[in-house]
Amino acid sequence: MPRHKQKKKNNKIENLSQTILNILRKDHSQAFNYKQIAAKLQLDDPSSRNQIVKKLKDLQGKGSIQEIERGKYILTPSQNYYTGKVDIAGRGQGYIIVEDLEDDIYVKSKNLNKALNGDIVEVYVFKRKKGGKTEGEVTKILERKRTEFVGTIQVQENFAFVDVTDYKMYTDIFVPKNKINGAKNGEKVLVAMEDWPEKADSPFGRIIKVLGMPGEHNTEIHSILAQYGLPYEFPQEVEDYANKIDTSIKASEIKNRRDMRDVLTFTIDPKDAKDFDDALSFEKLENGNYEIGIHIADVSHYLKAGTELDDEAYERATSVYLVDRVVPMLPEILSNNACSLRPNEEKYTFSAVFEMNQKAEVVKQWFGRTVTYSDARFAYEEAQHIIENPKDETHTIPSKISITDKEYTVKPEIADAILEMDRLAKTLRTKRMRAGAISFDKVEVKFILDENNNPEGVYFKESKDANKLIEEFMLLANRSVAEFIGKKEPKKTFVYRVHDEPDDEKIAALENIIKRFGYKLNTKDRHSTAQSMNKLLKDVQGKKEQNLIDTLAIRSMSKAMYTTHNIGHYGLAFDYYTHFTSPIRRYPDVMVHRLLQHYLDGGKSAKEEEYEEKCGHSSDMENLATNAERDSIKYMQVKYMQDHQDQEFLGVISGVTEWGIYVEIISNKCEGMVRLQDLNDDRYEFDREEFAVIGQRTKNVYQLGDEVYVKVKNADLVKKHLDFTMLGHRKEYKN
How far apart (Å, rounded) are the C-alpha atoms in residues 633 and 320? Predict the structure, then answer.
């Protein structure tokens, strides 16, 4: 036998006990005999087989394995197997998050055994170090999180590789020549992973779609959608189905509804809104109270359960709002036409109608299907102008903020309704804040785009009284619907929007950071935490650190989610809460409408398991949409900064790590990184405790919250990453 083959064989024999255990562990539910183990090890000579038989007996004697039938062995059942979710960290190693375990299980890259980020796996824990990491090995992949990836293709003569964009993907994907699907070298593609052979370093795949050249606008936007598995067009059969729906208003249907067409009704939405899924009605009653209706597009009238249109809406679960487009949950025939509460049109609606007194207390409520007629449409800016100018008896909207670009006057009864509802909304908000609600009015970054979707400028969208007026009445409807069903006896299955109390560790981490800026929290109890959080958010308004602290405060909170198990909503300080007001763009609202009508009709409780699964899917899709939206903003920020390479920007240090300093530009909220290796005036070391890097020789300090000047060094559109050059501290640099 050649020497290299003999050496390889000897290695296999030397580690035989461990190798046999690994084979049995990989598939611990299956029994193996000595021949099957020999075949797996590619050892077929008598001497090796005898060694395997001997080792099996040794391991049986030690209790490591059991003989379950003559000559067939399995691993001794162990409590060391868990099921969990893979979270890939740097350099291809990962952690398995197991719900029942306090600590995550650390897995070295060689023990991941082809598991990828987000996969559900079985993991064997083999080390429990005192004071160290719990370590394990992936023994089985139970469910792949995803099999489609976005990346850049490198085409060779007879095959290709796709370098995946996602930094948590630690391997490229091999594509045989016959599965390249016309992709050219350097193009961005969507690749499907089809197989990962035992001995192969990379999985095998095929190209599903060519997205275009990296850096091109449509390529990058479509890549963001493809990366999260979000569609950007409807299948033809779904479009055809939607286009055939009869959307006319029929007298026979009106008979089954409360007719509210004669009540003063209007919408207030963003200037560029295409769909209006909520309207408000206002009527002063003879007893001095008000009847206020929150009217929501009756999507479930058109969207019938079990149809291909409903299946598509459920799969999408939400509309996705990217910087330059909306990817709607429903086709345009419904979202922008039949279900959009456009002015001067009759519409089918689902309504929550409240009789309220002067103190904004609800004295009577009614829920049900209605038919309404919107008398007017306002942009937030127009409604805001009315609120800010209550003494203007003509209620004139100037041309510069008018939707039509022309000056016009608002009917007195509509202006009075807006002013009275603004007063009631402020009362509702004050009550909510007193009850312990938290006010997250985070500044939103918006872009002014030219006709080619290039960013010409940046502006900040802030929430004013007109926005808050709509918000308060939507909150009232959502809360009241949830309470109405939630308090029913016997208990009924329902879809709730819940928000858990914040995690103590995250709050402690937030406290640690904000004290650098001179702020503190009182975390004695739930109420004091909420109150001091509100004070913090108010105190930072307009300060350089506002965006950083707003972001960190939001991250310290639990994530809101959909579930049938009500635990209340911490952030809003409500015991019952749901989503009822946006069925055009959120599937949970459609479920809420269906369940509410079912229970109004005296129906039995729906199946909890079925709705819990739908809630889980809706929460997952909401997270994907949020990530896609965030990526599209990041992409547009990088694109904007590409055109400002020579400019000096004032920023605030928003993060400090061992590899670099993150800086957020104050004027446009773009965040980039100054790499430590690029700070050439000294050698800087990271001080974790101080959230700072310190120059060894100069003792110069760059600390979280410091104001600094930076310049763009590199703007990478494909990776959506900005590299900055540090110019220096604000004080020293400009003096």
Answer: 13
